[in-house]
Design brief:
single chain, alpha/beta, 3-stranded antiparallel sheet, 9 strands
Length: 290
């Protein structure tokens, strides 16, 4: 990677013609993050379902963006996804820092309940792939209580294994039999997105989304942060306190990158100011000749 590419500057981009949605996006480290809020994201996904062709939706957090710098396959997935949402307040804060603010965080744990409500209202079929069997059972029971008119939610929890070692034929058989409109995958990031990118298009599912730990939140196995902490952008702190061994190294890596990004941004701002022409040096300020 070149030094210029490593600076990962934010800039406003326009969506390509015909892509979903048509809102401007913000690029962070070369990753285009769509400038939409939760309601617009749900509307865009509904349009994708109605269109019927396969789409890939990604909920990206800061750690995902940082990982994309050293994982070419993951980076290509982020760049080619139909919709990339900001699942992390650090991404929203970074966009504000550069004056190109994303409207809000769109967390997978907030998006999925809205999609289940949409599926209940529209009669969409939903398939949930991944998570433990106990989490899937708990989630299914709770979802049935929360969305009583939702078509039966089908699940499959394959044994933990590398992507290449999974029983792909069995997974595909189950999904094809269910014919879902929406496929939710909980393998963890970026494993779940890589599975979707490699295999989901052949299944002709209109919308596939990697949703990670959302299955644990919905099952009640792992509690979410209190509402006030989520509103303040502190859910990451709550999760770190609950899972320090698992999340500590990840957050430390992300913090190092954020610190370097801030320093580079400050350096660039100073350079721009020092290189700008001084008003007194303009031709209009030259003294008149005799």
């Amino acid at each position: 990677m070149t030094a210029r590419g490593d600076e990962c500057a934010l800039k406003i981009l326009s969506a390509e013609p015909g892509t979903q949605p048509r809102n401007p996006s913000v690029a962070l480290c070369g990753v285009p993050i769509q400038g939409v809020g939760l309601a617009d994201a749900v509307a865009a996904i509904e349009s994708m379902v109605e269109e019927g062709t396969p789409h890939h939706v990604v909920t990206a957090n800061l750690d995902g963006v940082v990982l994309s710098r050293s994982d070419p396959e993951w980076r290509r997935i982020l760049q080619n996804a139909d919709l990339v949402l900001a699942d992390g307040m650090p991404l929203v804060w970074a966009s504000r820092w550069k004056g190109t603010a994303l409207p809000e965080r769109v967390a997978g744990a907030d998006l999925v309940p809205e999609l289940l409500a949409l599926a209940e209202a529209r009669g969409y079929r939903v398939f949930w792939l991944g998570g433990t069997e106990s989490a899937a059972r708990g989630m299914t029971t709770r979802v049935a209580n929360l969305y009583p008119r939702l078509l039966p939610l089908e699940t499959h929890s394959p044994p933990p294994a590398p992507l290449e070692a999974m029983d792909l034929a069995e997974i595909q058989r189950r999904i094809r039999r269910a014919r879902p409109h929406v496929l939710l995958v909980s393998f963890g990031c970026p494993k779940q997105e890589k599975w979707i990118a490699r295999y989901a298009r052949d299944l002709q599912v209109p919308v596939s989304i990697g949703v990670g730990a959302t299955i644990d939140f919905l099952s009640g196995r792992i509690p979410r942060a209190p509402a006030w902490m989520r509103a303040a952008g502190l859910e990451w702190c709550y999760r770190l306190c609950r899972e320090p061994r698992r999340l500590g190294p990840r957050y430390a890596r992300d913090l190092r990158w954020v610190g370097g990004w801030i320093l580079r941004s400050l350096r660039d701002a100073v350079l721009r100011r020092t290189r700008a022409p001084h008003p007194s040096a303009s031709p209009d300020s030259s003294p008149p000749t005799a």
